[in-house]
Structures are given as C-alpha cells and as structure tokens.
Amino acid sequence: MLELKNITKTFNAGTVNEKIALNNINLTLEEGDFVTIIGGNGAGKSTMLNAIAGVWLPDHGSIVVDGVDITDMPEYKRAKFLGRVFQDPRMGTATDMWLEENLALAKRRGKSRTLRWAITRKERDEYRDMLKELDLGLEHRLTTKMGLFSGGQRQAVTLLMATMQKPKLLLLDEHTAALDPKTAAKVLELTDKFIKEGNLTALMVTHNMKDAIAHGNRLIMMNQGRIILDIKGEEKKNLTVEMLLEQFAKASGTEFMNDRALLG
Amino acid sequence: MDMLLSLLRSMPGAISLGLIWGIMAIGVYVTYKVLDIADLTVDGSICTGACVCAILATNGVNIWVAVLAAIVAGMLAGFITGIFHTVFGIPAILAGIITQLMLWSINLKILGKANVGISARTIKVIITQLKTSNAIMALIGFVTVVIILLYLFFGTELGCSLRATGCNLNMSHAQGINTKVNKILGLVISNGIVALSGALLAQYQGSADINMGRGAIVTGLAAVIIGEALCSHISINFGVRLAGVTAGGVVYYIVYQIIVWAGLDPELLKMFAALVVALFLAIPYLKSTYFSYTPQFKAERKMRKIQARLAKKEAQLAKKAAKKGGKA
C-alpha cells in the first residue's frame, strides 16, 4: 500500500544548522496496516509524514502509494490518495467557513472543482448522518463557522473530512496532542472506529507510549531520522512500556529521554 | 440656505462616484477579505480599465465592447500579479506594486498621452455626469449584476475552494485544492471588477487620465471597512456584505462631498482619507490590546511603572552617595 525507499532529507544543508531529518528511511505498509510511530523530539516522525504528504520533496528516495509513484507529485495532487489530520486543531479546517462547507470541500478531494453548486441538499442529509455518528451534537450545527467549535470537535470533523473520501493512506500527525486527556481519548476512539470500519491503512504519530501500544497492529520507533524499531504481530500485542524502553535503549544506545512520552 | 442647497445639489454626483468606487471596492473585497491578500495592482488596473475603454470608445468601437475589453485588460493585469506571486514566489504585496509600476508605462502606451477625453456628445456612453439620475440607475444595475455573479460564483465548488484558499492553506492542500491556481483566479476576478469600475469612471468623468488610479487601494479599503462596519451586525450573508461594501463607497463619497462643501482644502483630502483608513485598520488591533485591558490590569500596570521609577531614582541616589563617599 505504501512503500518508502531510501528517503533522505537534510534541512539547511551546508550551513551550521544542518540537520539530517530523515536518514535513509525504508518502510513498507500492507493494506489495512495501522502503524503507530513514536520517538523523541526531532526523531523525524512528523518529518516522515510530511515527506509522504508532499509538504516538500525529499533529497532522494521514492514514495509509492498503491502502485503509484507520488515522489514528484505536488501536495495538492497527492491529496487524492491521502487523508490528513494535523496536530494543531486550527490547521485541518477552514475556520471562517461553515461546517457543511468544510465537509463539502473534503467530499470533493481528488476531484476537479467545477461551477456546480458546492453543496446539494442530498449531501446535506448525508453530512447530518455522518455527524450524528460522531456523537458530538454537531448534526444541528451545519451552518456554524468552524472557528466557533472546540479543539476536540474540530479534530473530530477533520478526521471525518480525512476519511470521507476513502484515502489510500491516513496520516495522523499527533492529532490528539493539543487536546485534554478526556477529549483526546474520545478522538482516539473515533480514530479506531473510522480505521476499522473503513478498513483503512494508517500512520499515526503519537508522543504517548501507552497509546502507541494500545492502538494499531504495528509499532515503529524512530530516533535521529532513522527507524530503529519495528514491532508487529503477536509481539506488538504483548508489548509493555517497560519492554519498549528496554528495546529503545538497546537499539539506540541511549536512554529514552522524553518525559512527555513516559508520563503522557 | 443656498449653501445647503448646493450641498444637496452635489449629492447625486457623490452617489454616482460612490457607486463606481463601490464596484471597485467589491474587487478589493475579493482579494483583501476573501483571498487574504492586500493587492496593490488595483491602483494600476483601474487606470488600465479607463484607458482601454477611452481609447476604444474614441476610435469608434461600441461602448459595451470597450467596457468588456477593459475588463479583460484588468484581468490580464491581475494574472500578471498572480504569476509573480505564485510562480516566482514574490510576496503578494510586492508583486502588486511591481505590476502597478509596470502598468503605468503600459497605460501611457495605451493612451498615447497623459489624458484622453470621452465626449458624451459624440460618443454613446453608458453613463455620464451630465445625466446623473440615469447614471445612478445604470450603476445600480452594474452593482447588482456584479454582486449576483460573485454571490453565485462563491457558492460553487470552485468558489468554495477559493474561499478555503484564503482561509487556510494547509487545509486546502490537504483537501487537494490547487491554491496557486486559485490565488491567480482570485486576482484575475478582482482586477477585472476593478477595471470595470475604471471604465465606468472614465465615461462618467468624460476622460481617462494617466494619474487617475493613484491611491485607489486606499479608497477601496475605506469602502470595504465602512461596508463591514455597516452590515457586519445585520447579516453574515455574502451578498449582503458585498452590497454593504458598495454602500461603503457611497458613504465615503458623501462624506467626501460634505468635507469639500465645508471648505476643507481639497489638496489635503488624500491625507485625511489615508489617516481615516489607517485608523480603521488599526481598530481591530487596538481593540484586542489596549482596549481589552481590565481596569485592574491598568491599575496594576500603573503601580508597576511607579515602582520602577522609584527604584531607578533610589539607584541614582545610591550611586551619588557612593561617589561622594568615594571622594571623601
């Protein structure tokens, strides 16, 4: 479903601020894989997701999604294959536009935008049903501006928008990090539900080891732009935080130093 | 009494001019409010519209064709700014200024000289200041058509994606919207509308002048700001907002007329207009900072200032005392 080959990216090459953000990343995802990604600050987790999403082009390497080479595709074009939810709840929706307009924009992801009406009456009923499933009372607020919703509501809507047109790959970039624990749990629950119901392939970056262990069928740990651990199958099911820390120390030669990941 | 009458007599003229600039302000609204770009191309493209219309009309071309050509010319100007901005990555405000400067030469070439008259007696113009009541009716027609077309456009898939582009680039990219094309499209539409107002202005005044666009953006912004103030509490409907912007243009020109009538030196008008616009642009910022402080915060801040001053004075005294002590 996804194939990353030798992806390398260096920021500020040739200056004192040179940083190798991604160092020869190789990763293959099967259809239906739900992979959680953990790692310390600057490990390259978000950078890898941005490389797939096409925020910038990698220095070398190739990205293939479902048999299509998207390495050179501009961000807006590859959006056809990808559903994205960001860390910042303000980033995923157009805050000055209505809830239903946002949904209508997402409904047309990957399609050419014509001079037909942006929203039809039939669609509106569809949206209402979808929102009802979120169980956040949003089905009565179709013509409310996105900016007036809470962070959790926005992330839930963004999640809905990302999966409305079934994406080949769902990219979740710490999408619960900015939320309070209760809301974060709710959004994670929705994430699980969407992925399961749609049988989606997903990559989820998180800073929370417990979440990384509890969700998905595969876990990747990154450090200094490399994938240093890749745990799947039965091994993943029996994983604990202690085991993960031990493995990290062994694989990287250092202690895991990130309170946020341990305490979160 | 005579004075008052002369003011009243000047009102139809002010309303016509206000409507013409109201159309221009709708163009500014598309870039400034919808696309979130401060586009300075308009100073040039309003003049381009006037020049193209004047030259074609004086050469015997049908006035409607001339107006249409003016709109297309304005669209081209917007396209150039759009290319500068999206393909070459020049910040929007500079891209606009560059095109504006370029247009000054182009406008001069189109016009051939600094000023070309459009005589309403020899040419069948759509509006003229010789018949203000007819002009007002025609202008209201133009305004209505422009508003309806824009209202419909921004309700389409493409129009919606253009609004998303102005609101959130990250989200637009994630939803597969080509934001570069949309920005160019927005600039093209905006400058087309601005050029239309230029073409109407040239007919109304009876001439196209190479300097007629100077400071147009300020007038346009003034109309947008007044319009927002007029109708933001009434309705959030897009069509109503655009109508409000046009009304903003009319209010601007009525106030302008009153100021002239009151005897203010017309040479100073641009300065006052600029200051008023600066003030209105500053209001959102001032509201969110200085005017949002609670009385308690203000009192505490005052105390902190006094304390800081006292501490400084004490330090000075201590220094002096130390110096004296040292000498002794």
Give me a quick take on this structure:
Chain A has 264 residues and is an alpha/beta fold.
Q: Let me know the largest β-sheet of chain B.
A: 2 strands, antiparallel
- Largest interchain contact: A-B, 33 and 22 residues
What CATH calls the topology of the largest domain in chain B is ABC transporter involved in vitamin B12 uptake, BtuC
Number of domains of chain B: 2
Tally the helices of chain A: what do you get? 10
Low-confidence blocks of residues of chain A: none
**CATH architecture descriptor name of the largest domain in chain B:** Orthogonal Bundle
Instruction: Give the end-to-end Cα distance of chain A, rounded to a whole number of Å.
Output: 31 Å
If strands are numbered along the chain, what order do they take across the biggest sheet of chain B?
1-2
CATH class of the largest domain in chain B: Mainly Alpha
Radius of gyration of chain A: 19 Å
β-strand amount of chain A = 15-25%
Largest sheet of chain A: 6 strands, mixed
- Average residue pLDDT of chain A: 90
Please name the CATH architecture of the largest domain in chain A: 3-Layer(aba) Sandwich
Assembly state (oligomeric): heterodimer
Give the overall form of chain A. Answer: globular
Q: What are the secondary-structure elements of chain B, in order, as H or E?
A: HHHHEHHHHEHHHH
Strand content of chain B: under 5%
Count of individual helical segments of chain B: 12
Secondary structural class of chain A: alpha/beta
How would you explain this protein's 3D organization?
The complex is a heterodimer of chains A (264) and B (328). With 264 residues, chain A is an alpha/beta fold. Chain A has 10 helices and 10 strands. Chain A has helices at residues 45-53, 75-78, 99-107, 121-134, 151-164, 181-198, 209-214, 233-237, 241-252, 259-263; strands at residues 2-11, 19-29, 34-39, 60-65, 68-69, 82-85, 169-173, 202-205, 218-223, 226-232. In chain A, strands 6-7-8-3-9-10 form a 6-stranded mixed β-sheet, with helices on both faces. In chain A, strand 4 and strand 5 form a beta hairpin. In chain A, helix 3 runs parallel beside helix 5 and helix 5 (151-164) packs parallel to helix 6 (181-198). Chain B is mainly α and 328 residues long. Chain B has 2 domains: 2-265, ABC transporter involved in vitamin B12 uptake, BtuC; 293-327. Chain B is built from 12 helices and 2 strands; from the N terminus they run H-H-H-H-E-H-H-H-H-E-H-H-H-H. Chain B has helices at residues 2-34, 42-58, 63-86, 92-111, 132-153, 157-167, 169-174, 179-205, 216-231, 238-261, 269-288, 295-327, and strands at residues 115-117, 207-209. In chain B, helix 9 crosses helix 11. Chain B is globular. The termini of chain B are far apart. The model of chain B has no long low-confidence stretch (mean pLDDT 92). The interface between A and B is medium-sized, with 33 and 22 residues.
